[in-house]
Design a protein that fits this description.
There is one protein chain. Helix 1 runs parallel beside helix 3. The chain has one domain (about 10-150): Ribonuclease H-like superfamily/Ribonuclease H (Nucleotidyltransferase, domain 5). The protein has helices at about 50-65, 80-95, 110-120, 135-150, and strands at about 10-20, 25-35, 40-50, 70-75, 125-130. Strands 3-2-1-4-5 form a 5-stranded mixed β-sheet, sandwiched between helices. It is built from 4 helices and 5 strands. The protein is of the alpha/beta class. A hairpin with a 3-residue loop joins strand 1 and strand 2 (about 25-35).
């Protein structure tokens, strides 16, 4: 797993993820669009009682777990929690036996572990995109996650 830029488009999978909750905590939804060689796949789901952060992490976990073989991945997220957790914080958490700098258990450890396991075979460029700022694919997964949240 890496947050360095992808250098080749061989087996490049682009992924957009989003998750949300209203109220937070409350009913939540997550959504993913995967694009590979011009073909797209959409996935989404919801939970009755959850948090915004759990839905953001669930979207990333579901996306990476759906990949069938090692790939170069560009994963776009509007969640700084996801991006910073996976590119900056997780090594310290693991080193401290899944404890924060303050000694508390890491929140959402189950989902962080799923993401780390699912990410292992891939080379991933984790990209943060500002939410609700006109990015077409980010807006698309936002609409999908909201629909999944409201469907329950």
């Amino acid at each position: 797993m890496s947050d360095s830029p992808i250098r080749s488009d061989h087996d490049l999978v682009e992924i957009w993820t989003d998750g949300g909750c209203k109220p937070n905590p409350g009913r939540g939804g997550w959504a993913v669009v995967l694009r590979y060689k011009g073909t797209e796949r959409e996935m989404s789901g919801g939970e009755a009682v959850t948090t915004n952060n759990r839905m953001e992490l669930t979207a990333a976990a579901m996306a990476l777990e759906s990949l069938k073989r090692p790939c170069n991945v560009v994963l776009h997220t509007d969640s700084q929690y996801l991006k910073d957790g996976i590119t900056r914080w997780h090594t310290g958490w693991v080193r401290k036996n899944w404890r924060t700098a303050g000694g508390d258990p890491v929140k959402n450890m189950d989902l962080w572990r799923r993401i780390l396991d699912a990410a292992k075979p891939h080379k991933i460029d984790w990209r943060w995109v500002r939410g609700h700022n006109g990015d077409e694919m980010n807006e698309r997964v936002d609409v999908m996650a909201t629909a999944a949240r409201d469907a329950g």
